[in-house]
User: Which sequence fits this backbone?
């Protein structure tokens, strides 16, 4: 809730009494269990996705200053959302992020929902003028997926955290070598692999 919304809905007090008693409008709104206008700008998921983006980029936990320098959302926004402001509130934001990413929901795969009409159905084979040896095509394997091909952000986080932010192929990390990590299927999705931890 913003101060303007408060005034538009019949609020009679100026900002001064709120600042005197609580310190800021944000603290007033937090006291009644709501979010200030600045805090409402980003959803909790958007805030956590930005922390994850920078954590993956650096291969370690980003600092408050790095959120300001490299992030799309400032450290101050996190500090006001997860506390009364300051660096201790940034610590609260990191704890909340880690709890969110460690939740069991992170391991729940996204169900596959692609319609059958989008599957590629082979057309009639083209006629050629020279002999072609073809394998026996009497049996066709149809793969029915239970999960979506896309790796959800929370699952991606769990995989990187499990692997200590190191590439399992070459052993390099963003923190030491500046590489970008990728999360992929052990068995290719097109060969029947599922998007699971």
Assistant:
């Amino acid at each position: 809730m913003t101060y303007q919304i408060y005034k538009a809905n019949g609020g009679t007090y100026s900002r001064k009494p709120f600042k005197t008693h609580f310190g800021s409008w944000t603290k007033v709104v937090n006291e009644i269990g709501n979010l200030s206008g600045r805090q409402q700008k980003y959803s909790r998921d958007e805030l956590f996705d930005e922390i994850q983006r920078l954590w993956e980029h650096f291969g370690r936990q980003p600092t408050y200053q790095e959120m300001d320098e490299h992030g799309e959302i400032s450290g101050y926004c996190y500090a006001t959302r997860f506390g009364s402001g300051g660096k201790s509130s940034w610590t609260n934001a990191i704890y909340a992020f880690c709890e969110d990413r460690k939740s069991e929901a992170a391991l729940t795969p996204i169900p596959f929902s692609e319609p059958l009409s989008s599957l590629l159905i082979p057309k009639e084979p083209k006629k050629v003028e020279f002999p072609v040896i073809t394998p026996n095509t009497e049996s066709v394997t149809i793969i029915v997926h239970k999960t979506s091909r896309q790796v959800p952000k929370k699952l991606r986080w769990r995989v990187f955290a499990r692997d200590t932010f190191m590439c399992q192929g070459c052993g390099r990390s963003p923190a030491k070598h500046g590489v970008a990590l990728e999360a992929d299927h052990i068995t290719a999705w097109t060969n029947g692999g599922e998007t699971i931890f």
In short: The radius of gyration is 25 Å.
